[in-house]
Amino acid sequence: MIKSKGLKVKLDTNGTNTKLLSELIEERLIDYIAMDIKADSDNYGKVVGLEHFDFSQIEKAIELIMSSGIDYEFRTTINKESHDLQVLENICRYIGYESKYYLQNFRDNENVLDRKFTGFSYNELQDFKQALSIDYTNLKVRGF
Question: Which residues does the chain have with pLDDT short of 50?
């Protein structure tokens, strides 16, 4: 109904429902996709609070999005307790050199459920950007 009115549709997803994602792409019901990638495969379960997490769904979602022909971005909300340069390099490898990728700094506020996380300083974020941008030119930083 939204598309029939000439409006554009953006989908924000965590990538875990690849069946629905595939249907939406095939039916051309979305114009832009933004997918959160919480961590690399070794750390995903820890970040989402599941001891045994099947990362293959995330990989499948990444592949679906990248081959869809629909404009997209990937993003990771980073915090000191879960992310370091190696984790971010691994994520960049999953999404390739050409994908738009945003590092979003964690921000603590009254709505955060788990108060143990801390964000990075501006300089730390810039260090990540500088290190990763050598190979991943579409990387940008949000959160400052």
Answer: none
pTM, to two decimals? 0.92
Cα of first residue to Cα of last residue in the chain, in angstroms, is 37
Q: How far apart are CA 10 and CA 55, in angstroms?
A: 24
The closest of 49, 60, 72 to 17, measured between CA atoms, is 60
Task: Specify the CATH number for 3-142; select among 1.10.3720.10, 3.20.20.70, 3.30.930.10, 3.30.420.40.
Answer: 3.20.20.70
The helix/strand/coil state of 74 is: strand
DSSP code at position 109: -
Determine the pLDDT at residue 112. Answer: 63
Radius of gyration of the chain (CA): 16
Tens-place pLDDT, residues 4-25: 899 999 999 999 999 999 999 9
